[in-house]
Amino acid sequence: PAADTLAVEWPQATDEVVVNETIEVDGSFDGGNVRYVPGPELGDGGQGEDQLPVFELSGGGSLNNVIIGSPGVDGVHCQGSCTLNNVWWEDIGEDAATFRGGDGSQFLVSGGAARASDDKVFQHNGGGTLTVRNFAAEDFSTLVRSCGNCSSQYERTIVLDGVEVTAPASRLVGINENYGDSATLRNITIIGDDDRD
Length: 197
Ligand code: ADA
Ligand code: CA
Ligand code: CA
What we know:
With 197 residues, the protein is mainly β. The protein has one domain (15-191): Single-stranded right-handed beta-helix, Pectin lyase-like (Pectate Lyase C-like, 3 Solenoid), CATH 2.160.20. The chain has no helices and 15 strands. It has an eight-stranded parallel β-sheet, with no helix packed on it. Strands 2-4-6-8-10-12-14 form a seven-stranded parallel β-sheet, with no helix packed on it. The structure holds alpha-D-galactopyranuronic acid and calcium ion (2 copies). Residues 49, 74, 94-95, 98, 123 line the site of one calcium ion.
């Protein structure tokens, strides 16, 4: 298409709450499009790896209709298979979401969008498959990174299907072929030029 901006419509926040302590989700959580603003206890939204997540999901959990406000800190952590439905990151911190869990885990990001990352959006640190579908991202460096130096390494699978982005500063997906990773990209729209030489 000739459009030069993303087609995605960001939701209006229905309310706003400050989060001073990671919200633990066991099961399903629906935020009703409330904006969750990370407090300084969780981090400063820079590139420090020691920041805390706003939400931490145990295996099998789902997070729905949530807006994560600035400064983003370490976003969302999944400790095992999880689904993130219509989650909106307004100002990514160190990264937007981290996926953990052993071989065979299934991580799904469906709907939503993310913007303003100095580096990565999604960080795949577990085993199994991370699928990102019907998702938009702008102003970032790498959309999905498979961990290259985690204490447990796995053969990871990454699927992007129906993803619209502004041109990434570095790449859509970074994988470790030495660990047998693979990535499948379908229905990708990239808007604008990147500014690499
Ligand atoms: C970097 C770092 C990893 C891990 C990851 C993360 O890639 O090298 O060890 O901390 O970030 O989960 O944010
Ligand atoms: Ca990181
Ligand atoms: Ca991180």
